[in-house]
Automatic annotation (TrEMBL):
One of its GO terms (biological process) is proteolysis. It is found in: Secreted. This is Peptidase S8/S53 domain-containing protein. GO terms for molecular function: serine-type endopeptidase activity. Keywords: Hydrolase, Protease, Serine protease, Signal. The keyword Hydrolase applies.
Amino acid sequence: MCYPGSLDAEKVAGKIVICVADDDPIAFRGLKRRQVVQAKSVGVILIEKEEAVLPSVTGIFPYVQVGDIAGSQILNYINSTKKPTATILPTVEVKRHRPAPVVAYFSSRGPAQRTENIFKPDKMAPGVAILAAMLPKIDEAVGDKPSEFSMRYGTSMSCPHVSGAAAFVKSVRHRWTSPMIKSALMTTPTAYDNTRKLLTNGSSYIANPHEAGSGGLNPMKAQNPGLVFETTTQDYLRFLRHNGNSEKDIRSMSNTV
Ligand SMILES: *[C@@H]1O[C@H](CO)[C@@H](O)[C@H](O)[C@H]1NC(C)=O
Ligand SMILES: *[C@@H]1O[C@H](CO)[C@@H](O)[C@H](O)[C@H]1NC(C)=O
């Protein structure tokens, strides 16, 4: 499983190493990869428990993830020969992947924890394998210059998409307030994917509103939603009061005296 300290540097040096994922928070993959890199291996194959693997943060180190079916085939192959060999080929671009978008399996599900009266999640935005520029990280470099690009996952990736969409709407609708822009972004998402079927949830079931929110972000349509809802600070304060927050707490949160 490539736990820290488990690799024999002498055996691993110059080899492609196979690690099997156990309980696998995404961050753990990076950790496994680092173990293997430090042990001077030349590549790593990570076998995931599930077949639905997502490409992970790769840096420039030869690295590939496979599901449990391919994984057991690889393990059987290794067992079948004295000198197993492997080649990790460069990543290829897959254009017009279908279906897309899909709710990522790790995406937070609603309802909101404190009240079901507020619909959560708000909407979907791209957050899987987002390739972007980043500060070069020394530990991701192996015998070469650190990469200035990386792939990342999660809300931290989808948030900038939504922020960009909000800025785009604001550039056309100068007078709209932030809540009005949020309203426009939330009343215009699409319920369909690029196969013209209803959005799905990662295991091919139709995504419910607690998975997809109001649907897939649609910045073009958000310019002309037909109607926008304003939400004032007062509305938020009333909401907090209604949900059992004390006046003292609300004052400290809202900065009002
Ligand atoms: C490989 O072979 C050994 C010995 O025959 C066996 O114990 C082991 O389960 C095999 N592993 C796989 C992944 O097939
Ligand atoms: C997708 O929805 C089905 C039916 O509601 C559910 O059983 C399944 O766990 C969901 N998959 C994911 C990845 O959330």
